[in-house]
Amino acid sequence: MSEPTTNRLDAFDAYRAKMNARILDEGDHRGIKRFFNLDTAAYRDGALDGKTKELLGLVASMVLRCNDCIDYHIEQCMAEGWTEAELEDAMNVALVVGGSIVIPHLRHAVETVDLVKRREGAADDLG
Amino acid sequence: MSEPTTNRLDAFDAYRAKMNARILDEGDHRGIKRFFNLDTAAYRDGALDGKTKELLGLVASMVLRCNDCIDYHIEQCMAEGWTEAELEDAMNVALVVGGSIVIPHLRHAVETVDLVKRREGAADDLG
Amino acid sequence: MSEPTTNRLDAFDAYRAKMNARILDEGDHRGIKRFFNLDTAAYRDGALDGKTKELLGLVASMVLRCNDCIDYHIEQCMAEGWTEAELEDAMNVALVVGGSIVIPHLRHAVETVDLVKRREGAADDLG
Amino acid sequence: MSEPTTNRLDAFDAYRAKMNARILDEGDHRGIKRFFNLDTAAYRDGALDGKTKELLGLVASMVLRCNDCIDYHIEQCMAEGWTEAELEDAMNVALVVGGSIVIPHLRHAVETVDLVKRREGAADDLG
Amino acid sequence: MSEPTTNRLDAFDAYRAKMNARILDEGDHRGIKRFFNLDTAAYRDGALDGKTKELLGLVASMVLRCNDCIDYHIEQCMAEGWTEAELEDAMNVALVVGGSIVIPHLRHAVETVDLVKRREGAADDLG
Amino acid sequence: MSEPTTNRLDAFDAYRAKMNARILDEGDHRGIKRFFNLDTAAYRDGALDGKTKELLGLVASMVLRCNDCIDYHIEQCMAEGWTEAELEDAMNVALVVGGSIVIPHLRHAVETVDLVKRREGAADDLG
């Protein structure tokens, strides 16, 4: 049975999609559009594969303490196949580099992992 | 033939070793010593291998803009076998996440890669 | 017809006014009061005009990633007469300097511009 | 009479407790657990007493602009006996060091002090 | 008569040019090259003129506390015609937003303004 | 016997004094001068004594990772009578809050404590 209620991760995804459309489709700033393209390109397979780069993006987001960025990269990391144990190991690096000021974002990140797992579980139930 | 002159990376390594000895051997703060142990442990093989974690440490250091941390993690990354092309790909993620304010640290990082290669070349000449 | 419902920008304005009164009227810390005065003075006409300084304040707020500060400076910038295209050009500088970690704040900022425009539209309808 | 409704500080305390249990009790990452222990130990009496260290933690949290960390350290500081005037004096140092970008967090901190006082008042009424 | 000795600003310019050539000419990372192009483009005339954008870049660099970025943007700002009084007014905004932690960078910035003026004076003497 | 050679701390003190004179005596920006006054006032005895506030300033400087600010506050803290053990305990709080990215600044801070002690020893020898 699918989850009927919207959680904070679903709300973030919807807001992110709406505002990206506002910026990129309704807006016409060439520099901003190019930046978004460059950002997307940075996580494509290259000398490093995209999966590894998403993990780099997650750790960068955690030490810079941006919850929205953390949510986005956790979704990407889990879609790329990183396991929960591997994500926690990466989060530990972020925690040690960034210190206890990262702890609130660690709480957020762990909750986001749980929300993605619940979403995946709901999808399996529907399958 | 070995390089006779000391470059900035050799000077950093020597200063780092001297001050770590000052803090950990002469000093006796239990909390600080435990933190250093925890820091070392964070990069050991776990769910993720140590090689991957060093790359995470490098990207975290770049977006937080710490040249000493960048130097240390580049030395570790190259010892772990990451190639120059892979390091540049990781640096690109750091650059896109952290923005142009990272560029001075990218210059520093690329120079450090060159210094490590020169050091390795000198070691090969001695071999 | 005016908007009957309170949006997040109205809520921010009300909270900001309430807490500033709590700090400056009920509170009696001389240093804190002097800091608030100094902050206000920094955006008055000087060698640079106040309009330019508000744009500087906006970009500083974006690269330091403070949504409340962004909201305040967007309100001031639009009251000073900066156009939406000019604000986007300033936001682009902030995005390039600060990197993709600024993107969630860019989304917020663009939404705030839209909220101020809606507020202005409502005021026109009432005029 | 006790406050029947849950305020944002109560909600934070509950979320913090729930997620810490999720990370430390359900989770099994040794490095993360060690970090939490190290964090707790840093505020115990040592060469400096725990009361002084909590004030250091508050100022560090304010200049790094983390509202959750601010809430936690204000609760600890007030439990340790720091007066409101002393907390404001510490907040002033944080404001001057960190600049106007700290102001939204000063608003939050002052509100948290008020929430803790209200909570203490409610406890007295129940006593 | 021109200054015969190299000062720190000349040394920075030379290092910056050398390492940018190393990264962009010898290097071949497409993402990094695109980022440098995007960075350059962000300061070109648009809805805002390039002169205004350089001032935005200076303030962003000061609150993010990057001396190399400060040096670069001061050189650009002075070439664009901003006066010393105007630059100080912009620096004051950065100081108030960023706090006393910006003061060491304010010292650096004021010294850089003096170095550019001395350089310009030397050029005039040669004219 | 006094130390004949200038160390990095003496050089910092001299540069700081020279540039502060440049900014405050030669310069005439009223906002900048007021900020410097406000900064000085923040560390005077108030609800908290000046000695405690200097320790707050040190921890704030360490988590924000500013070596010049660290040097200044260590000099002030030691003049106020904080012992080396107490300073290390404060540094430990900064290290845990700010993470391993603070370690290079911890090395710097410990070296500065040693330089101040050497300076005090030299003064004693002259007494």
Automatic annotation (TrEMBL), chains A, B, C, D, E, F:
UniProt source species: Rubricoccus marinus
GO molecular function, one term: peroxiredoxin activity
PANTHER family, alphabetized: ALKYL HYDROPEROXIDE REDUCTASE AHPD, BLR3452 PROTEIN
Residues covered by the Carboxymuconolactone decarboxylase-like domain: 33-111
The protein, known as: Carboxymuconolactone decarboxylase family protein
Matches recorded under Pfam families: CMD (PF02627)
